[in-house]
Amino acid sequence: MSNIILSRRRLIHSISLASLGLSTPLWLSGCAVDPITGKPTLMMLSEDDEVAIDQQQTPLQFSADYGVSQDAALNQYVSQLGRGIHARSHRPNMPYNYQVVNANYVNAYAFPGGSIAVTRGILLELESEAELAALLGHEIGHVTARHSAARMTQGMLAQAAVGTAVAGLGDSALGGAVGMVGQIGAGALLARYSRDNERQADQLGMDYMVLADHNPKGMVELMDMLRSLSSRKPNAIELMFSSHPMSDERYANVQAQYGGLSASVKSRSEGRERYMDMTARVRALKPAIEAMQEGERLLAQNEPTQAESRLLDAERLAPNDYTGLVLCGKFYLMQEREQRAVEYFDRARAAYPGEGQAIQYRGLAHLGLKQFGAAREDFLAYEAVLPGNPGTDFLIGYTHDQEGERPAAAQRYQAFLGRVQQGEQAEYAYARLAEWGYI
Q1: Which spans in 27-144 are helix H?
Q2: Are the beta carbons of 66 and 89 closer than 8 angstroms?
Q3: Residue ranges per structural domain of the chain
Q4: Which of 148, 170, 407, 409 is the most buried (most CB within 10 A)?
Q5: For the range 349-354, what are the long-range contacts, defined as Cβ-Cβ under 8 Å and sequence gap of 24 or more?
Q6: pTM confidence score
């Protein structure tokens, strides 16, 4: 038996976005033209690479954020607004798509190929169409300036240097784990932007929204809201500030850019009534969403009793809300009350058929119950809904492993290690394959 023990709790805590992986392209695009300045720049990902990475990773990220909103009218509204803005951008022909996701935290993010998401948490804090246009313009700015691609290029160069340093390790486990072919997961793609990136995205976002006939005051008001929220709800905005660093300089730059615009531009409608009408359904959930936010905050502070109370308050306020049901299921899973967790994940699946997260976590609950066959069925169902998550290979392999089915387990472990070479799961899979004589 392998001397690496993977406990149930550690398995559950390590299987979220940390398990997502995508092999770095082996081809290098080299020099490219900066779409903003028109000058040559070092870029190791082509536009096709950006789109391919985007298409592979966004379904997994959207599911991690509790799926795309089932409010079709709201999604259409955000998409229409986004299309009008990106049409005035430096890269209007990228395959942009816009989604509202069901996460409660306050954030928006963009993948390199043009997939842009806004959380329902941030929609509750915005007060006008102009503010939403500013938010979308900012994210479009990250896409047009190729900020993610530039960050990945830096990472690939760093990994190439590391690969050279460890080249003498040959075929050892460490040599296999560290090399020129690294891993890019959704978390890395959405990692922290630099202050320069943020400054440029702010400027581009305001330029684009002005060209699209929106009131640029929305950008100033967006910044005011974020600054205020950092003191009122610091937990809800923590992720946004980690990926989109705020600063007094950034705020001053936005005010200066706004101040230089004409009076006629500043007098445009901010679209407050239209925004309130289009977000009415999500606003009706505000008490439940705030209870969920509070429950998540209390859970992060290791106060499970109070967290459970707030999550159950949210359930009473919105008994069929998918996010709330999954959160309750996750809570009971973390408390090792797996059967109760299964009940919530079943209700979540009924509330949002076909969304993957409830299926995946139901499998984790069945693992905790040592019902390995049922867990495998869940993971296979999840794989059918959301292919491409290497963590699924590990989990399916683990269920075969626990039932003594070595060939089937080895096949899945090998598939997993083909894409993920670092972390606790990779160490466990490698040790099992070595113990069984496969490597």
Answers
A1: 47-64, 72-86, 120-125, 129-144
A2: no
A3: 21-281
A4: 148
A5: 351/320, 351/321, 351/322, 351/325, 352/67, 352/70, 352/322, 354/385
A6: 0.85
